[in-house]
Write a structure and sequence with these properties.
This protein has about 160 residues and is α+β, with helices and mostly antiparallel strands. The chain has a single domain (about 10-145), classed as 3-Layer(aba) Sandwich (Aminopeptidase), CATH 3.40.630.30. Helix content is about 30%, strand content about 20%. Strands 1-2-3-4-5 form a five-stranded mixed β-sheet, with helices on both faces. Helix 3 links the parallel strand 4 and strand 5 (about 130). It is globular and about 50 Å long. The model has no long low-confidence stretch (mean pLDDT about 95).
């Protein structure tokens, strides 16, 4: 049996992509967030960030959409360029990456990450970072396969 992967095109996101992009926000919490974060809280925060990226694009940021060869949206990546805490120089950062459930396992996330890295290189960045929940084993394994390594761990304590 031969398994083929659909062609994936990457392009800048448009206002007409808003509904699709915002609809993927709940996927970002499907792994089962820590007890002090609800899935809705995570989805709401991601929708807020993505809506702002569509409404008021920030200089040094890019929202890219992956679509099939026939124009069906498959996923997106939101790229930012914050300052590195230690070096105080800008770097590329994956703010959000999401793929439609129907497109999982077809190379869409990898295509988006390659596009993000190409964007980073085109802007002269020598580093690309991202955040992932500690409990999101699938995402952590994916990023490690791409060569990303953990750098810091953020600890949280809910105060009484």
């Amino acid at each position: 049996m031969v398994v083929t992967r659909p062609q994936v095109r990457i392009r800048g996101a448009l206002e007409t992509d808003r509904e699709f992009i915002l609809s993927l926000a709940p996927r970002l919490a499907e792994f089962g967030p820590p007890p002090w974060r609800s899935e809705e809280e995570i989805a709401r925060g991601e929708r807020r960030t993505l809506a702002a990226a569509l409404d008021s694009p920030v200089s040094g940021a890019e929202l890219l959409l992956a679509e099939s060869s026939d124009g069906v949206p498959l996923g997106f990546i939101y790229l930012e360029s914050p300052l590195d805490y230690f070096r105080q120089t800008p770097h590329a950062h994956v703010g959000v990456l999401a793929v439609a459930e129907s497109a999982e396992g077809h190379g869409v996330a990898g295509a988006l990450m390659r596009a993000g890295e190409a964007w980073a290189r085109a802007h002269g960045f020598d580093t690309m970072t991202l955040n992932v929940f500690a409990g999101n084993a699938r995402a952590r394994a994916f990023y490690q396969r791409l060569g990303y390594e953990p750098e810091t761990l953020r600890y949280v304590r809910r105060l009484p």
